[in-house]
Amino acid sequence: MVRFDEIGSWSEVKLSIIKEYCAAYSTILTKQPYPFHHIYIDAFAGSGQHISKSSGELVAGSPQNALEIEFPFKEYFFIDVDDKKIEALEDIAENRSDVTVCHGDCNQILASEILPTIRFDQYKRGLCVLDPYGMDFGWEIVQKAADMKTVEIFLNFSIMDMNRNVLLKNKENIDKKQHDRMNRFWGDTSWEEIVYKESPQMSIFESENMHLDKQPNEAIVEGYRKRLKEVAGFKYVAEPVAMKNEKNAAIYYWFFATHNPTGHKIVTAIFNKYRNRET
Q: In CATH, what number does 5-159+217-275 get?
């Protein structure tokens, strides 16, 4: 029997954001005069349902929400590595011919089986949700989505995972495995130059020892946003929303990247609606 994950209020907000945009995105593409084949991809789909920490009630997850919109996507892909969650996703799919449940590592499945098929010349478009609990996908997925020119992404930038395990105050104390995780997520080691900078008030003796100050979350997040545009090549990257816990600490930042100005405009409006919410 599957055990549903408990989620906080910040996750419920994120689910609302995805649901609102899915409805708008699918409505627009469905009503186009062209034969668009638009695809929804949930790379860390989970069990499809959650339990609210605040109410104790079941909350529909992003896969279920996507299936229930008024104008459905032409095709759905739900991916997870957990056997029990796969069973729950198959129950939600109810043998629908437009739903494919994929059991395995999304990094491999997306790169080789799904993203390459979303071709511009075949009038295909895709919305991909990358929402793990930590840094569990690699930069190659982000780059591939950008290269296709047909795929928009929601992306979980797990700042709490980074701060706890990688972005330590003293750079020299970073464990190699954690350093490698960050490299894989970021795509290279350029994050080090953004995260660690020389102190402006450094003495001559400190300079000789290369004392570096860790930069605030906002600088790191902006560095990744810039990377999505300048390295991955997404034309538009909305200013992300900080998902904060009850102590007002950022757990992660919710990103959206696209080549489409309409999608960017819609998501920016949705983000702004939730940006200054009370936790």
A: 3.40.50.150
